[in-house]
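Chain A, query sequence.
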Amino acid sequence: MKQIKKRNLDGQSLITPDTVAKEIFSSRTESFDDNFIVAKAEIALILEMAQQQIEKGLAAQEVIHFTAGALHGLRDKIHSSVWAELIPIVQNHAISDFFLEDPFTRWSFEKPRGYSGDAQLLDFIYGHESVAGLVRNASPVGAALYDYTKDASSSVAVRERRDLLTRFVDEAAERHAGDAEILTIASGHLREANNSTALKEKRIKRWVALDQDPISVGSVMRDFHGTCIEAIDGSVRDIVLRSQELGTFDFIYAAGLYDYLNDKVAIKLTKRCMEMLKPGGMFLFANFSEDIVVDGYMETFMNWALLLRSKADMWKIVNESAEPSSVEAEVFFGENHNIVYATIRKKD
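Chain A, predicted structure.
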């Protein structure tokens, strides 16, 4: 059996893989046993068909396209408690070695940094030079699979998210005429800063990049040395419990963090972020949506489970975090509906 590393996503145990799993996978129902027998047979058939495609020499991109689609279809129609029991069956099937030739999939599954969705993982999506060596050394099968996974709908949405964040940062700099103060929560490598015109033109007063991963903090310190960007080691818990005094900001955002936060923690964090906004300031948070179609592949071969949210779920967080009369809020999808965004602006 493959060993899967686990580590708290939050350094002080506020967020853990177990808490994420509890939100995603429901308790078993009375019909679990019967449903599981049927589903186990279906998953075996899917994996057998994929294996046959490989043996027949079908192109790797066609194999992964079939498999990802079949996994999504099965996940979508069965109870989440049944799906949860199928995940280890898939992960321990011999065919997993085929998909793990993809350097992106392998990084996600093995979690070299100890947790899901780390900044280096996103660099596979961005095609960043920091992963070029791993991509270059991949097998022909791995390279073909990577061509598929880096351009899957979810990956396209993440690149769009990066560019959207850059635009919001530059708009904040324009709106506040060079005095803008910005806070990024769970900043990762802060790739959205690379294309910021306002940063290049030194029209941002202060930009705090907060992350709990010391490797990410070090990366930001190195890459943006000499700019207004301050890399700070900190967690969700630090913000919620006010253990760090960061000041107030004109724009605060959390791009990928809410994918791992249950509603209770998400609302607490959102309330605290609203307190840290200056009058007229805006908070943005994003979440993978329920429209994602590679969820089955991500949860199995990539060992990457996310809390998926609908527009209604996002509105619930917004409405329970701020008094409607005191803010202007919007919830909207990205272009391919794989990511949903919420913005909350504090009225002047």
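Residues 1-8 have pLDDT under 50 and may be disordered. DSSP finds 16 helices and seven strands in the chain.
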